[in-house]
Structures are given as C-alpha cells and as structure tokens.
Design brief:
This protein is mainly alpha-helical and 661 residues long. It is 61% helix and 5% strand. A five-stranded antiparallel β-sheet has the order 3-4-2-1-5, with helices on one face. It has helices at 44-58, 61-65, 68-72, 74-79, 101-109, 177-187, 192-201, 211-220, 224-237, 241-259, 268-272, 279-295, 299-312, 317-327, 339-351, 355-368, 372-384, 388-400, 407-420, 424-440, 445-462, 465-479, 493-505, 509-523, 532-551, 555-568, 571-587, 591-604, 608-624, 628-640, 647-660, and strands at residues 7-14, 20-27, 85-90, 126-133, 147-150. Helix 23 packs antiparallel against helix 24 (509-523) and helix 29 (608-624) packs antiparallel against helix 30 (628-640). The protein contains 31 helices and five strands. It starts with 6 loop residues before the first strand and ends with a helix.
C-alpha cells in the first residue's frame, strides 16, 4: 500500500440507523503523467478500502475483521466486500479539474487534512456517493464532517456498464425545521456539542444540504477548508444568505477558537479574520486581525485595529478588543474583563522581552483574581529586572496559591531572591521547600539533583558547611548514571564546585582540589570559543583553587591559578583575582608587590567592596612609607565607599594622619 494519500473522504450525512452515509470522495494526489492520474469510481471494494483506512486510524471494528492481505487479494475482492458493503450509488457527476502550477504546489504543501480538508478543495476532482453497509459497526466513529485520507490505488471496473448509475440530486432543500432549530441553538449560545448534533441532523442524506447547514456544521467542527468554499459560493451568489452565513460562522467559530488551547494555530483563525459580511463578523474580523498583529509583534498596529473593533460596540468582540487594549497599556473601560485573554497577551509580551508591558498586563489580570501562574510570572519579571524584594513577595504569593502549576520553581527562585536580600534563613527554608516538593512529587532525577544543589548553595551561603556537604553529595548521588551507557542526565559541574568549596572550609583540602580539578577536566582547555556556561564553571573552579592556595599561603600556586583568571576571565573576574593576589601578598608582607596589585584594582574597578579594601590597604602601606598626603587621599576614598569592613578603620587612620600633619 502506498504511503502517499491518494484520496480524501468526508462524511456529509448519515441515516439515523447508521447504515447509510453520504460520502464525498476527493482526489488529493496528482502526478505529472496523465496516464498515472488517480481517478474516481464506485467499486464496492474501493469503498471498503476507504473505510478500512479510517478504521485503522481509530482502531475501529472493521480493522479487526478485514486484513491488509485480503484487500490486496484480487480473488477475495471479487466476493469479500459484499459482507461489508451492501450498496454504492454515485449521486453527483465527477466535478473539478486536476490542479496545476501554484494550486498543485499548495496542495502538495498540505498533504494531510489538518483542520478537516485541503486548500482549494472545491476545485479538486470529487464526487458524492451514497454508501450502505451491512452493519453500523463498519461506520464506527464516523459522523457528519469527519474527514480522512486513503492511500489505496484505484480499482478499475471491468466494463463501462459496470460503472454505477448517477442519479442527479434534487435542488438543494430550503430551510428545514432541523436547520431552524440548529440556528436557534447557535443564537442562544448553547453547548457546542448540542449545536454540532443539531447541524448534523440538518444534513439531508441523498440531496445537497442547504448552505447554511454546511456552514454551521463546518464552523462548529472547526473545518476551515470545507467552510471556505461554501462561503465563497454564497458571496459570489449575493443575497441575504452570505451575511447570515458570516454571522453563523463568526458566532460558532469564535467559540471554537476561545475553547482551543492554541487558538493562534487554529486553521479557522485566518478565515474568520477575513469575513465582513455583517456587523458581527466585521467586528470579529477586526478583533482577530489585531490579535494576529499582536502575535507578530506589531503592537502599535494591533492597538489601532483593536481601537476600531472596540468602537463597533458589537459584543463580545468589542469587549475582547477592549481587553487587548487594556493589556497593552491602553486606558479603556472594561465592560467584561477576560483574564484568560489578558494573561495570554501578557505571556506573549513576556516572551518578547517587553517586561514592563507584560507586568502591566499580569497586574491587570491579578486585579480580578491572583493565580499561581500570574504571581509566578510577576515574580519572574521583577527578578529579571533586578528587584529581589518585589520578586520574593510575588514568589511567596505563588506558593500560597499553589495548585501544582510550578510551585517547585517558585520556591527555588524565592530562595535565590531571599539570598540576594541577605535573608539566609529564609533562603534555606525556601530551598528546602523546593527540594521537598521535587522529591515528594516524584519529579525527574535531573530536577531533584538541581534542587538538592540549590539547597547546598543556600546552606553554604549561611555557613552550614556540614549540611551543605550532605546536600551536594545527595545531588551527586541522585544525578549519577544508574546503568553504564545510560548517559549523564545533568551537569554536575556546579555541584562539584560547591562541594569543593565546602570541603575546603571543612579542612578537606585534598578532596576539594580533586573535585575542582575534575570540573576543569570536564570543561576542557579554556578558549575564546568556549560555551559561556562552561567558561563560567571553568572560572569558578579555577578561582576556588586559587583560594585554597591563598588560604594555605602558597604564593606560587595561588599566582598560577589567579593569573589564569586574569588572562582568560571577564574584566570583573580578573579584577577580583587581582584583589585576592594583592591580599595574599599583603599577608606575606610582600609590600611592593601588594602596592602594585592594589593600585591595579583601583585603576580597574569602582566596585565598593574592592575599592574600600584596596584604598585602605594601599593607603596604609603608603603611610608606612611616609607619604602622608597620598595616604590621607586614599583613606578618604575608602571612607566614601561606606563599606562597613574598612570605613571605620579608614576613618581612624585618617584622623591620626591629620594629627601628625
């Protein structure tokens, strides 16, 4: 069997006993050789194959009663289909012409009936058939509007007289009680499933359906490809049916979009955005055009179009547009606040990195009801913009409202924000909560290892070396491979770095060096094209190896590690390494070397902590050398930083120097 779809099939109507269906068969594959063209015929075995392909997709009963081998067996096909297909009658002549050029390419670009059909399907080769089966099970899962593809090559009748007789259908029937009832339900905004069933009942079995019945069915099922040609025919014909059809398509289609989890990817969207047959469809089209512009980042254009939609006053489309304007920062009175829509727009602004606008939109949604997701996103914006206090407050609120959306991450981020604020007890508590949730909820090994590492980081910052060591070791054990060849699921670099620092604090310096050197091996030789995450890990491990040597007063080793940072690190990393080297030489009474390095720090940074130490120590050494005016200038520089570690000492030394002056 070919894997290329050759035919398309759609159910137009079904009898109440589900034994008879009106099917429209399309040719959806066209080759360059006219002798290889796929053609339509009315063979019973051909329809059995079409129904079997659908049964295979949905695991229907027919798939278990007929095998592929039987459908390939010419002897079985002589009599076998009669057990399943009782009768096939062609209702309409074959219409349409094989597409060419751009139309053919467009069809080939969309080989699947996504959205229930094919581009320009009204021009495809097609015909309608009345098919009766021997058991309703063979139509299992079929209902009006269902569309699928079939990949069987056609069967040729043995003689022209074997081709089915064509009974031309009567003229399309006018509005029936079933159609009027379906339209009433649509106007009353009844449940979509109830409306769908009503429009199914309005489809006549062996005559063409009224166009409004087709519009209703295809709108409520979201079938844009089938809906488009019906609307085009009504528009070309003029009269009152086209505005009615636009209104019906708008009312039902908009509800389908609003229920969709991904409305901006729904095939109905583009079709509805182009309708203008009546005031309701025109207002909806304006709202949708603005929505499409907003999605593409054309925010000013979106607001302009939404302003037009809001001015129509046609509800609910004018209200949706007003919500869009409000979410985008416009000042407008909301008759009907739609927090789902506002949050959706806020998400798009957030991912487009328009953080202040996103914050406005999330805050607007929160005025009605603060949810875990909204609180979390507000926290993310404050975190990204360097407002740890506001971020911590939002993450705390997200945890209070937790419904399982992303509570582990909220607790994780809350810990980081509390640490930035100097609240180390609160940071440890939040990190414990993040890890607890991660473990009790059975989240992935990678995620459990990450939260354990984060807990270790918070404990390390608080100075709880033993507990931090236990947390880091748990992270490493959790993240290790269970089987040889399984693959490392997470990067242990930062866990090793944290554990190495903790072991050094606990006096386990040999073990600390081994862990940090393992990180350097994982990172590989430093180079200008090294990925940033790996370069940062390399710098952190190298710096900590320098710290170990510094604390042991091993100047040669410390010089070796710190000079690698100075040569290959960022400017900030380099100046910190220089400051550490300066302090080491100060401790060792290498005054000349210390003065040179501290001056280099002052020349290359304005960071208060570094400036305070460098100015005080350099001033102290300068005073010892007898240059009191220079020393007093350096003390004033240290005092101006307001650094609590060095400002009091600098003030005291400055006072003594002034007494001697």
């Amino acid at each position: 069997m070919s894997i290329t779809p050759l035919f398309g099939a759609r159910v137009l109507a079904m009898s109440p006993d589900r034994l008879t269906a009106r099917l429209r068969i399309f040719v959806v594959h066209y080759g360059s050789d006219p002798y290889e063209q796929v053609t339509l015929n009315g063979e019973h075995c051909e329809f059995l194959r079409h129904l079997w392909d659908f049964a295979m997709e949905v695991d229907g009963p027919l798939a278990t009663r007929v095998t592929m081998e039987q459908l390939y067996d010419e002897i079985w096909l002589d009599d076998g289909p009669a057990a399943f297909i009782e009768d096939v009658r062609q209702l309409t002549p074959v219409a349409g012409q094989p597409p060419t050029g751009a139309d053919l390419q467009r069809l080939h670009d969309h080989p699947d009936p996504y959205g229930g059909g094919w581009p320009g399907e009204d021009g495809l080769v097609r015909a309608d058939y009345l098919v009766r089966v021997t058991d309703p099970r063979w139509f299992d899962h079929l209902r009006p509007g269902v569309t699928w593809t079939s990949s069987w090559h056609p069967v040729w009748p043995e003689a022209p007289e074997d081709r089915p007789h064509i009974d031309l259908p009567d003229e399309a029937v006018g509005p029936t009680p079933e159609l009027r009832q379906a339209e009433r339900l649509a106007d009353q905004d009844a449940d979509l499933e109830e409306i769908r069933q009503a429009f199914e009942a309005a489809q006549p079995l062996d005559t063409s359906a009224p166009p409004l019945a087709e519009v209703g069915l295809y709108s409520v099922t979201g079938n844009s490809h089938a809906l488009a040609p019906v609307l085009e025919r009504l528009k070309a014909g003029g009269g009152e049916d086209y505005p009615r059809a636009c209104r019906l398509a708008t009312r039902l289609g908009s509800r389908v979009l609003m229920k969709s989890t991904r409305p901006l990817e729904h095939p109905l969207l583009e079709l509805l955005a182009g309708l203008d047959g009546d005031p309701e469809s025109a207002a909806n089209a304006l709202w949708l055009r603005g929505r499409l512009r907003f999605q593409k980042g054309a925010y000013d254009e979106a607001r302009d179009v939404w302003a037009q939609a809001a001015a129509t006053g046609v509800r609910p489309y004018a209200d949706w547009a007003a919500n869009g304007l409000a979410a985008g920062g416009g000042t407008t009175h909301l008759h009907d606040r739609d927090d789902r829509l506002i949050t959706e727009l806020a998400d798009e602004l957030f991912f487009a990195d328009r953080l202040e606008e996103a914050l406005h939109a999330y805050s607007l949604a929160a005025e009605t009801e603060m949810t875990e997701k909204v609180a979390h996103c507000i926290g993310d914006i404050h975190r990204k913009q360097g407002r740890p206090a506001e971020a911590a407050e939002a993450y705390e609120r997200a945890l209070e409202l937790s419904d399982g959306w992303n509570a582990t991450t909220a607790a994780f981020n809350l810990a980081a924000m509390r640490a930035k604020l100097g609240d180390h007890d609160g940071a440890v508590a939040a990190a414990r909560e993040a890890h607890r949730r991660c473990v009790t909820e059975g989240q992935s090994r990678e995620r459990r290892a990450k939260t354990a590492t984060h807990l270790g980081d918070m404990l390390r910052l608080r100075g709880d070396w033993a507990e931090a060591k236990a947390a880091y070791e748990e992270a490493i054990q959790t993240g290790q491979r269970k089987k040889r060849g399984e693959g490392q699921l997470w990067s242990a670099r930062w866990t090793y770095i944290g554990l190495g620092e903790v072991k050094a604090k606990l006096g386990e310096t040999d073990a600390a060096r081994e862990l940090l050197q393992r990180v350097l091996q994982q990172c590989g030789p430093v180079s200008i094209d090294m990925p940033e995450d790996r370069r940062k890990a390399w710098a952190a491990a190298t710096e900590r190896l320098g710290h170990i040597a510094k604390n042991q007063r091993d100047a040669p080793q410390a010089e070796s590690w710190y000079h690698q940072i100075i040569e290959h690190g960022t400017p900030r990393e380099a100046v910190w390494a220089t400051a550490h080297l300066a302090e080491l030489h100060y401790w060792l009474d290498h005054h000349d070397h210390a003065r040179t390095l501290y001056q280099r720090v002052l020349d290359r940074t304005k960071e208060a902590e570094l400036v305070a130490e460098a100015a005080f120590r350099l001033g102290e050494l300068t005073a010892q050398a007898g240059d009191h005016p220079r020393a007093m200038d350096l003390m004033e520089t240290a005092i101006a930083t307001a650094d609590p570690s060095f400002m009091p000492q600098a003030a005291d030394l400055l006072a003594r120097l002034r007494e001697r002056a």
